[in-house]
Design a protein that fits this description.
By secondary structure, the chain is mainly alpha-helical. It has one domain: MetI-like fold. The chain is built from 15 helices and 2 strands. A two-stranded antiparallel ribbon has the order 1-2. It is globular and about 70 Å long.
């Protein structure tokens, strides 16, 4: 073995021995401020801390907070709203982003494409609280600040168009449409014990539309990035074989965009499960908890009712929901690597 090879091996060995030592501070900080706080939250959820006075003693029934949580009418509404909101938001955001991306790729050229891309992406740069306030003025213009905002309300626009204002109200109706309690209970009897009505709350629809408006530009940018990686030669070969544009997108483009679609589902889905500021700015808990979400429940329990054990239990349920969405994606990524 030559001297240079021996020196190179000694340097590699030194690098390998130094790397774990260099990672120790980051691992310790990450472990403390992530897993340490998760463990602390779990301890609080099992404790008797339900007043302003700190009490970390273990409850006689450690799972009592979780039993009370899952039996709570409000939290059942929160879980229903989260599920409905996530499904509607994913479908709407993917369809809107895909439509905008295809439109920009096929119908807009040159500098105009850049202008429209920035225009559609602009809402994503706003904070959710700004989006919530702006769309609250649109759907409930009585909360606006001047005649201009009142005149641009959805119901006013419908009235001018001769349709008339939609009834019931957008953000003030506790009605749940398409109820499915009886159908689901016949398939899975334990669901009959659920107190809340399962379906789509009317007041949640405007919140979903506002979220789609903000996240649609993000989905568009992701799809545009995916479309740019598809070789034009593949499409030309399909055209030569007699495929129409619709067939090219259905059989070639969309399957090749599947990894992009999965990424959008993970990112948007995780965001929808922990949504908080948009709901606060737009509707709050809503009529009959029609727009309430677990984030608001945690905030009210911890900082309003001072039921810290119940708030901690709800926050761990939120963590579980996000983990269920993100973990399969991470496992799949690790397998591919």
């Amino acid at each position: 073995m030559s001297e240079s090879t021996a020196v190179f091996k000694r340097l590699r060995l030194r690098e390998r021995s130094i790397a774990p030592v260099a990672l120790v501070p980051s691992v310790l900080v990450f472990g403390l401020f992530v897993y340490g706080f998760i463990a602390a939250t779990g301890l609080v959820s099992l404790s008797n801390w339900n007043t302003a006075k700190i009490d970390l003693s273990l409850a006689s029934n450690p799972l009592g907070s979780y039993e009370e949580l899952l039996g709570s009418y409000r939290f059942q509404c929160d879980l229903r709203n989260t599920f409905v909101f996530t499904i509607l938001l994913l479908i709407g955001t993917i369809l809107l982003g895909l439509a905008l991306a295809i439109l920009l790729e096929t119908a807009v050229r040159g500098r105009r494409r850049t202008v429209f891309r920035q225009l559609f992406l602009f809402p994503y740069s706003l904070s959710f609280i700004v989006t919530g306030v702006a769309w609250r003025w649109i759907f409930n213009p009585e909360t606006g600040i001047n005649l201009l905002i009142n005149a641009t309300g959805v119901n006013h626009v419908l009235a001018v168009a001769g349709i008339g204002p939609l009834q019931p109200g957008w953000l003030t109706d506790p009605q749940v449409v398409l109820p499915v309690n009886n159908a689901l209970a016949s398939v899975f009897p334990p669901l009959a014990a659920i107190q809340t009505q399962l379906g789509i709350p009317v007041a949640l629809i405007p919140v979903t539309i506002a979220s789609m408006w903000q996240l649609g530009g993000f989905a568009m940018a992701m799809f545009l990035a995916g479309l740019s990686t598809i070789p034009e030669e593949v499409r030309e070969a399909a055209r030569i074989d007699g495929a129409t544009e619709a067939q090219i997108y259905r059989r070639i483009v969309l399957p090749m965009l599947r990894p992009i679609m999965v990424s959008i589902i993970i990112i948007v889905g995780a965001s929808s499960l922990k949504i908080f500021d948009l709901i606060v700015g737009m509707s709050g808990v809503g009529p009959g908890f029609a727009t309430d979400v677990p984030g608001l429940f945690v905030y009210d329990m911890a900082f309003g009712a001072q039921r810290y054990n119940l708030g901690a239990a709800a926050s761990l349920v939120m963590l579980l929901l996000v983990t269920v969405v993100v973990l399969p994606y991470l496992a799949r990524s690790l397998r591919n690597e």
